[in-house]
Records
---
Amino acid sequence: METRILTVFAHPDDAEALAGGTLLSMVNQGAKVFLGIVTDGDKGTHDPTEKKEQVVARRHKEQAQAAAMIGAEVLWLGFEDGMVQPTLELRKELVRVIRQVRPQIVFTHDPTVWFRHGTYINHPDHRAVGQAAVEALYPAVKKAGMFPELGAAGFAPHVPEELWLAGTDQPNRWMDIAHVFEQKMALLACHASQFPMEKARVVFRRLAEEAGRPRGLPAAESFRVIQLGARTVDLLASHFTSHEEQQE
Ligand SMILES: [Zn+2]
């Protein structure tokens, strides 16, 4: 069966920047990707006189180009850029999208990260979207009694197998992206309004090197992967069983 992947990120370009190489590799193995994008990226301009509609139109166009390179479907949720909060409204919307797409793997931002690389304050939208996605996945997405109006509208409970947190400081999974690094740069080049490509190339090369260092990979993306399942007790049982096997 084809692996279905849903990404839940705050802005157009986040999926490509944080997980572009990994998504390309998974697509090469036959996966189908759905890009859930919570905001329209309407603050993504350096020109204060530019109209919001112009910015949104450009970002939709750039995202469509990048999505075409991944063969992905884009799902716009339409929240305002820079103003996202982990509300029940957003949680419900994410439950709806997860139940609609019915993925095995969900990607989102690591909501616990405030700072990275000693130079970067994590965007509050990233933390908010990550938190709302985690709270949608447990337990709302699998409980028919939560947001019962979704079930009534045909969005039946669904439990993905794995959650992959991107932009994390606590990775436990390293994906080799050396073979798709140029393709990842081409994805980022689609978002021309966001990335001056000469600088971006240097920065993303260094990020890939840094991510790969703990595993001796020349270029990687790293993630904190969380196993999901219908019953927490079963997940914990298999966790402890596999640890005991490793010790034997
Ligand atoms: Zn972002």
---
Amino acid sequence: MMTISSLKKETKNQEIEGLPDPPYVMMSLLGYQSQLKPLVEPGIHVLQYQLIAQSENNWSIKLHAPISGIVDVVEYNGQNYIKITNDFKNERMVCVPPKLAALNNQDILRVIRDAGIVGSGGAGFPTHIKYDVADRPITHFIINGAECEPYLSADYSLMNQEENHLWKTVQVIQKLIKAKYVILAIEKQNRELKKKIEHQISQLNINIKVQLLGNDYPQGSELQLIKTVTGKIIPKGSIPAHHGVIVSNIGTIKAIANALYQGIPYTERIVTVSGEKAKTRGNFLLKIGTPIHHILEQIGQDWQPDDQQIILGGPMMGKAVTHSEESISKGTGGLLLLRHLKTEVFNCIQCGYCADVCPQKLMPMEFARHAVRGNSDGLNQFDLKSCIECGACAYVCPSDVPLMSSIITGKQLIKTKL
Ligand code: SF4
Ligand code: SF4
């Protein structure tokens, strides 16, 4: 692991702001290991919060309209989307919060499922499946409030500014999964939050331990977090619940709180907009499906891919945006505008920094060398499949070797050779 500069100062203490709603939203129909099926025909009018798509497999992942307007189903960049053109009438479904005291465990799982809640940390795993542990003993419920990627402060601003129902929701989930210990993990650099949250939970008489983590990267990645908090080492490919641990991001807790206490499905989230090329920085409450170009317009910037590198997520694990029509998803915590790096595989100077910081003890320079040659045997020999895609190697590389793109290409190459 390594310590990296946090670069959060400019956004973490700003008020969470809204932006004007976009003229349309683009809702991806790609769900966790599944393709969602539209439940609405092109041309029809939908209300805000209306169910518009769901997966046909057992995951039962659901998508709701974040705005009211006219539906279209479009293909874009090889992916299918539901596009809703905003009528700006804000006509919405009547949302009735469930009577919490009358809900049994199956009812709570159903509320979470029907609100379309998936992990807000990026992987998009359906939360009702994660919490359906039946009689499997759960010792630790860890709430991940450690946003270890530079720039990102969406989760911090959520914990700092929106105490409403967050901790009561944690208590509901603790009872649901029958967790023995509940731990909220935040980074040391945010230690000012600890006292504030401890005061809130003591007022509510809720038993949550607030644990400070080191500022090392990737402290917030699931396996690392579990090891730090519980001492347990979860074998790769194994499910944490099978080892008595469930981890949820604080943003996921907020989405559940909205469903339990307001009856509102997962249709908006807080996103950090930042980066050295961003003229306006802050944390914004955005509708899921908001196109990137709309956000850029609202902060007074143009789409200039030659001059900026635009990232959805954090600089370490985020995804480079290739078109301004790409949009905010349920797992998007950040939109970063960074300087453009000119990367070159053969610039490696064999300094070894990438291997020094790799939490998996891999040799990332070898991935670049073998991926560019299409050598899957070489990639396997250096154990590419153990890479957790944390981005630490690319961050420290002084020669801007494109390690992350090599890793992603390399993994695809291995799959095709299976
Ligand atoms: S090789 Fe993978 S696990 Fe290791 S630092 Fe790079 S991205 Fe992280
Ligand atoms: S950090 Fe970059 S330059 Fe150094 S060995 Fe790794 S890939 Fe090569």
---
Amino acid sequence: MSAIQTGRRFLVTGGAGFIGSHLCETLLALGGHVTVVDDLSTGRRSNLDAAQLNWGGKIDLIESTVSAALPSFTARRFDAVYHLAAAVGVRLVVEDPARAAETNIFETAAILSFASRTRTPILFASSSEVYGKGVRAPFKEDDDLVFGAPTVSRWSYGLSKAIDEQLALAHAQRDGLPVVIARFFNTVGPRQRGRYGMVLPRFVAAALAGAPIQVHGSGRQVRCFCDVRDVAAALPKLLDQSECHGRVFNVGGDRPVTVEDLAALVVRVTGSASIIEHVPYSEVFGNAFEDLAIRVPDIARIRAAIGFDAHIPLERTIADLITEHARAPEAAA
Ligand SMILES: NC(=O)c1ccc[n+]([C@@H]2O[C@H](COP(=O)([O-])OP(=O)(O)OC[C@H]3O[C@@H](n4cnc5c(N)ncnc54)[C@H](O)[C@@H]3O)[C@@H](O)[C@H]2O)c1
């Protein structure tokens, strides 16, 4: 525990969600006081209960959208803000692209104004989706962002995150806002839910039920998965270093794996007899869906800045998901 951090006050938007609740644990472990604003649209109180249980601290939950909660905060009430609230998940975005774009743009605009006004350092949770359909591998932070046609609803998420990034950097330039942009790649681990299209909890649940594991598309898509505990540990380190302010960082694993191989690994670690079944994207998301063949990060920048490494191997993450599933089968649904 760092003595410098003890007693600091943190605001985490989207803190009852998957990554947010792990970040709350990290901040509690640093001795901080944590306030969460979350409308519980995809997050859960039980995630915060688990975070508190592990560290014994207290998290104040304000059940609200971000923009509705902000007027109740007095000036400079927090020492740092972590903005993770967003409409997340391919399924959610494809089903309601308007909601995804509105949530991700308007709520972020509101919190950035708040942070600028109160001169509070802020970390913004962006996404590898901002690279769109860029073909370069691995993706570097200064690469061009290449999106598909706006008629293809999946791009609304990446586009909205890209607008957020521009807005955050504009506040940094105009107002001197200390802001860090963290572009998360595929993040996995306990408390992630399968119902919004997240691949690993879906695979683990199917394997444990002995049901077919459904791989969307060819299965030859290449991704890098990073355990959420590695991601959460990195975020305060980024925001606490003034050299990181005004910069963008990829946050992800460095072990590329095809989705088909991921399914095979889940079968092996669970000891399941499940078969692997391929399902065309058109059957899952409709005809206007495009996916990326390769999405892997270049993590040289975050390595150089904070010594980041993805320590937790995928096998251990899967083993932890199996344990979580045995304890509460409904948790990963
Ligand atoms: N999980 C990943 O692999 C991944 C990858 C890239 C980026 N991200 C980003 O990381 C952040 C966290 O994602 P996650 O995977 O934990 O998803 P999540 O759905 O578990 O977390 C998002 C949280 O935000 C809350 N929320 C949504 N709209 C809100 C609003 N208007 N006001 C207040 N709260 C609201 C939800 O209830 C939820 O708790 C998001 O910004 C997401 O875009 C995640």
